[in-house]
Structures are given as C-alpha cells and as structure tokens.
Amino acid sequence: MAKKKPSLSSSVVPFMSVERQAQIDSEESEGLSTLPLDSILPDSGQPRRLLPDDLAEAVAANTLSRIEALQAWIQRAEVDTAPPTLRYNIRELKRLADSVERHGLISPISVRKPQPDETVPSGTEYLIVTGERRYWAHLYLVNEGKQIQEGETTADPAQIKVTIAQSGITVRAHQLIENLLREDINAIERARGMWALRYELSGVNYSSPSGDDEVDEEGVNYSSPQLVPWARVEETLGISKRYRIFVTSVLKLSQEAQKIVEAHALAEMTIRPIVQKLKDKPELQVKALKQLVAWQAENEAGEGPGRSIVASVKELVDQLLAGETAKAKKITRSVSSAPVIRFHNKLRQTLDFISRLKPTDREGLTEALGRNEFVEVMIDLRHLRQQIDVILETVTEAHPADDEMPLPKP
User: Which class for 311: exposed (0-12), middle (13-18), buried (19 or more C-beta within 10 A)?
Assistant: First the structure.
C-alpha cells in the first residue's frame, strides 16, 4: 500500500511547533535580541505583500523612508475608493499596534542577515523572515509618538524584539509556512510564495513569475534560469502535487483577473472553479470574479440570501460556460443555415402557389403549356427540375438514408 502523503496541516503545524520550541529554548539560554527598526528592512521577496508594490520598491531603493512609506500607505487606505484589501491591512495594522502599545510585542519577529548578492539600503543590517506586520505596527507607534507599556516598564517602539535566524535556513519556506497558516492570505500571494521558494531551492534570485514558464511534465524548468522540479517544493512544504497545482495555477489568470483577486483578498479555494474552467476565457474570468466580489460584499453586509460562496461560484462558472456554448452554437447555426432558410422560403412560396391552384386553373395551365404556346415557361420548368434533381442527388449521396424519407402527399 502506498504511503499516504501528509496533509498541509499535519506537516506544517508540527514544523511550526518545533520551530517555536527551538525559539523558546534559544530565548531561555541566550535571551531575546532587541534591534533598532532602522537596521531592519522588510524582505522584498516575502510572499505576503503588505506594503503596496510601488511604496515597497521605493523603500528598497532608499528613495522613500519607512515612515514616509507608512504615512502614504495610511493615506491611500483612507480614500473612499481604496481597495478592500488595502483598508483591511491598515485596519489590522492599527489593531495590532494598539495591542503592542498596551501589552508589548508577545511574539518577536525573526530576521536574517542579507545574502551577499542582495542589495539593501545603507544601514540595513537585517531582513525580516517572519513578522512584517509586527514590524509595521512598531513603526506606526513611532509615527504616532506613542510608547509601549509592558507591565510597569515603558519601552521605545523604535526598538523591536527579534530572533535571528540561523544561516542556511530555507527562508521562503519559513515565510510561506507562516503565511499558509493565515486565513486571509490571498491566492496570488500563495502562488508567488511557492514560486519564490522554488527559486530559493534552485539557488537563484527570485523574479515574479507570470505562470507561463516553460516546464516539462514533472515541472522542471529548462529555460533560464533552470529551476528544481516542483516536487522539491512540495516535499519542503509537505503538500501534495494536486494542491500545489491548484495554488500555482492562479497565475495563469489574466492580469485584470489577478488584480481583482489581490484587491479583494480572494482565497484560492473560492476561485478554484474560475481558475480551472475559465483559464482560456479572460472575459469570463473577470465577469465571474466581479460577481464573486459582489456576493461577498452582500454576505459581509448581511444583505442577500447569505449564499454559500464556493457553491455559488461553481454554479456561476457552469452557467457562464453553458451560455458561451449556446451563444457559439447560435452563431454557427445562423451562419450555416442562412442560405437554406432563404431557399426554403422561396420553395414554400412556389409550392403554396401551386397547391392553391383550382382544378380548372390547373387544367387550363397544362392545356396551354401542351400547345407549346408558352415555350419560355416550359424551358424554365425543365431548368428548375434539373436544378432540383442536382440538389437532391447531392444530398442523397451524402445521406443515403434521407432518400427513403416519405414525401408529403400533393
């Protein structure tokens, strides 16, 4: 019997427990370190993106201070048209900052030394491995001019408790495992995190993938740079190949669709039917995602029927595909059947005219034509019969059974 692959929860949670126990042992033997915020910088390769991309890039390039970035971040969230994810992140940041102010930082952040090939601003000695939100909460308190009250002790928020990660750790695995345990991480962040881990395991710098990288059936990338098989990532995280494919496939959505997923923090499980069934239909992706966002807003506001989002999305995708198929059939039929419809209309008009002839009129017609007084009419009748015979013979050759169909009585 094949050995059952451990689930994400069974493999990740013990890992975190071991990591936490090692941290506790280290704290007991060596004590926590305290570092100035100015010496620490968020990791630009962190799967979970808190700070908006342009602000994060400006901070990394040292063209914007951390405080200035924080202030701009908060201002954007206060605009009425701000994306829900942006407002949510700032709301959670303020809530965490309030907790830190009253109780101190319960869980220290973990940091690491920059790699030799990593470019960081002058004065930056460490990059964050885990705990970026806690870092920004400290900066928020600094910006507000507040102090931290830990029991009877007052602390300066410009200093933060840290544990320093040992050299040689798999940084992206640590970051990704921490974030995979969070319910609010969106599908795009999960996918980028797995790609970042794959790059790290390959020993090359991470670059954000589009989802179109050249790979073979085993997930080996033969383009430049060469990357390890996806199996290495799955083994490191303790997840199945099936789940990994579900997660990374979201990067095959259109750019517009990905922006909606990020802006509204949509979960991978929720959008899975859209990713799987609408992968080649960008317009339907956007249509489905916008409807999904509307449903979630209704549920959050307590309006509407309180529908099951996952089940509703599956049904919506099937309806969109059915409508697309019906539309395509209608277009195809309207194009191919147009000449037949015109021919049939003319044919029925002629048949109706002949069938409505009175017996006396029919006798007079045949008598007049028999006297060869209307040669042109006879020529046209013979020509019409020839054309009809050609059509019938062609159809009979293509569909022999149709020749046995009973004809209506005259």
Answer: exposed
Q: What is the pLDDT of residues 30-78, one digit of tens each?
A: 446 889 999 999 887 666 668 888 898 888 888 999 999 999 999 999 9
How far from the centroid of its chain's Cα atoms is residue 333's Cα?
A: 34
- Whether 253 and 262 have beta carbons less than 8 Å apart is answered as no
Report the C-alpha gap between 36 and 162 in whole angstroms. Answer: 10
Mean pLDDT of the residues in the chain: 76
Backbone angles phi, psi at 194, to 5 degrees: -70, -40
Residue entry with tokens 């209704």:
298
Q: At what angle do helices 187-202 and 255-263 cross, to 10 degrees?
A: 110
Peptide bond into 225 cis (omega under 30): yes
Residue (of 272, 271, 258, 206) closest to 233 by Cα position:
206
Q: pLDDT at residue 27 above 80?
A: no
Which candidate, 218, 315, 241, places its Cα nearest to that of 274?
A: 315
Report d(CA 329, CA 334) in Å as an integer.
Answer: 8
Question: Across residues 320-334, what is the average pLDDT?
Answer: 69
Structure-token pair, residue 388: 């009809």
- The token pair that represents 334 in the structure block: 């309207």
